[in-house]
Amino acid sequence: MSFPSTIQAIGIQKTGDIAVVEKLSVPFPKQEPNQIVIKINYAGVNTIDTYFRKGLYPIKSFPQVLGAEASGRIVSLPTDNSVLSNEWYKKRGFKVGGRVALYGLGAHAEYVSSPWSMVFPLPDSVSLEIAAGALLQGLTAITHMTDGYHVNKGDVILIHTVAGGLGLLFTAYAKSRGATVIGTTSTPEKAEIAKSYGADYVILYTKENTVQRVLEITNGEGVHAVFDGVGKDTFMANFDIVRRKGTLVSVGNASGPVEPIAPLKLSAKNHKLVRPSMANYITTPEESTHYSKELFEALASGLFKIRVESVYPFSTEGAQTAQKELTTPGGKLAGKILIKVADE
């Protein structure tokens, strides 16, 4: 199969505000011997995209193609014989034309070349659209509630921004483990969506005092764990919310990075603080196979219901609008944002 010398992609030529996001012409990705080339149909928009755009996460060189997840069809397989003979590679059953989802920086492009272990064949029950909306947040929910803090039956868990795409999956997964879920969100409409995913209590942080309400709900004890993707605006209050020997899982930095704290802060109630990266939970082929299998089972069973809020065109305006919707405090977003790169 012949490929074009250049492709279209969504990226940046410098860090900055939303205006730096644009549709670019970039060289066709170089395929390393261990990589699979995928023609992209849908790309998922995530908060991590804004971290790279702002410069919070380091970028090696410009232009930088944005995006960390996408779905499409395989157009070229690895050429490395050690890969082709690898048992974990063979278990995935890759084939040209096969439907897959992929994880990795640079996913918002017409073609992506990705290490094979970060490419996941899709079961027939999962569409390309749903796959692009499920991979990153689904794997984050499963890994963080397994390895970050293992949610157990009887736990009381607080999930900030509970009606976002990740918050809804956190909720469903925690409920499947037998936990009681308290969430925070901005509007009554979002609260109802969170409750439809199983949230037991939803606090409107725009009208209620989160710390006070959590302590009321838990009879003054606090929660076993907090999953906080907000960051700067909510972080310090979490120490008043987590019970003795509880865990604070810092998931993201939507409102800005958290300021450094002294380790002594944890000793007041023997708290544990973790700041995991999903990528470091799926580093090996064994890990990525294990967790992706659980993700696709959760989608097939209906445990994970992907609520696609918006699908934007593959254009400068579409990409900018997607990031604006994602980052507007108290905005309408309750679910997942996608970019449609190409027709199926």
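Next protein, fold it too.
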Amino acid sequence: MSVSHSSRLNKLVREQYMRLPQDGKVQVTYVWIDGSGEGVRCKSRTLDKEPKSIEDVPEWNFDGSSTAQAEGSNSDMFLVPVCMFRDPFCLDPNKLVLCEVLKYNRKPAETNLRHTCKKVMDLVKDSHPWFGMEQEYTLLGINGHPYGWPDNGFPGPQGPYYCGVGADKVYGRDIVESHYKACLYAGVKICGTNAEWEFQVGPCEGIEMGDHLWMARFILHRVCEDFGVVATLDPKPMTGNWNGAGCHTNYSTEEMRREGGLKHIEAAIEKLSKRHDYHICVYDPRGGRDNSRRLTGHHETSNIFEFSAGVANRGASIRIPRQVGQDGCGYFEDRRPAANCDPYAVTEAIMRTTVLNETGVETKDYAGH
């Protein structure tokens, strides 16, 4: 198995230093989304005391020309702290802080999709939107070969791996469980995991969904770094007769969760059906090109060119869980978002269509609200 050189370093030696006291100081790691819209970056600074709220964490800056976010002649970008977590790597009292990125003129960077999402979520807050996102991913060796696959050839066909148990069915459970524990320690609202490389975050209300999923992704990449492997969110990392990787998004409003809420679920699905092209464009970072490799109508996916919905149908664009159909209220699942989607873009789009009643492919500017 191809693992990184750093993972082979003596971790016991590292622990000797990690146990040293900090003399009352605190390490704060600033985390942000880079110019790709998919990758995360981080850097750390020392604060004189433990921050008790996000307001206690000062703004910072970084070189945007090194992250595809600015030109070298005007490269300073601002890091604006928005959400704070405990640090599962350096432990208490140290912190992880998710940041928005602003350009030199204090306008949002192109990949700062949180900025508009927050505006939309503030507008629809009375509907109390809840989200839960199922993040699928693929583990690769440092050479890009899928972790656990034979060096030559392919593993056995799909079937035994889903929620599997056993050394011939599960690969990398140590990584899956380490990530789970790290998220729980950090305060990420992780609610479950599957050993075949998926975790779930939620329920989260409003902007919290994007904040917690992005931090869970950061923690996943850091855990994989320790183990010497790579986690990719590519929606179809291996061509052929293999499932792709999605980020199925479960969604409800307060009306949908109440008795008789099924009619509100059906109304929302009807709105989504009339705006399929718009959603496909925002459900991956490349305007639907990534998802076109995954949404083929095969391997538990819908066809990218067609909208469909059904009860308990994992081959549909929208799935209504069977229990929801029986109860007459609850939530529904949008199965179209790709694994590498931006959760801010996905949740914002759903609110624009189902609550703000936008139509067509253009979006409204709510700057004056």
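About the second fold: The chain has a mean pLDDT of 94.
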